[in-house]
């Protein structure tokens, strides 16, 4: 198959990869709950599955490239907005994270499952994403005036695991609205942090 765009211009390898990844994003947005397959993306990009494999090497490497791009977008979207008050920074970041997941729930599920299964590349990427998000949450909590003790830091890291599991359950069985899900994730952090003073006084 000729390596040209729809306008007839020949594409460089990096441009072709970007075109295919953009097609993957369109497939996810069109039907967030549909499994992202090589065949669907190749058809959307106007290339053959064989050409997709040529540029990414394997289905696993293609999946990783899609996950990597999505993770970069999540980190960008959840970055703190210094123009907002501390409380709103935190709520806005949590909402942005939940909405990013709900735009591509199957991809999020695949990321967590591949990480849990021991895929080293996906596990490293997932760990990086968690570390960046957790540090952002801890910084935002500090901006609200709370002292970051070891207990508070542990609570923030544990809260992220709770959010991940909550999102996975919702993806399989969306019994509440996305807005209710966002509210639950945001309020659960406040509820968890409210217990840290009790933990400290009982030590």
TrEMBL record:
Pfam families: TetR_N
Leader sequence segment: none
Domain called HTH tetR-type: residue spans: 14-74
Presence of the UniProt keyword DNA-binding in the record: yes
Alphabetized Gene3D superfamilies for the sequence: Tetracycline Repressor, domain 2
Start-end of DNA-binding region: 37-56
Key words, A-Z: DNA-binding
Record-linked InterPro entries: Homeodomain-like_sf, HTH-type_TetR-like_transc_reg, HTH_TetR, Tet_transcr_reg_TetR-rel_C_sf
PANTHER family, A to Z: HTH-TYPE TRANSCRIPTIONAL REGULATOR RUTR, TRANSCRIPTIONAL REGULATORY PROTEIN (PROBABLY TETR-FAMILY)-RELATED
Name this protein carries in UniProt: TetR family transcriptional regulator
Source species: Kribbella pratensis
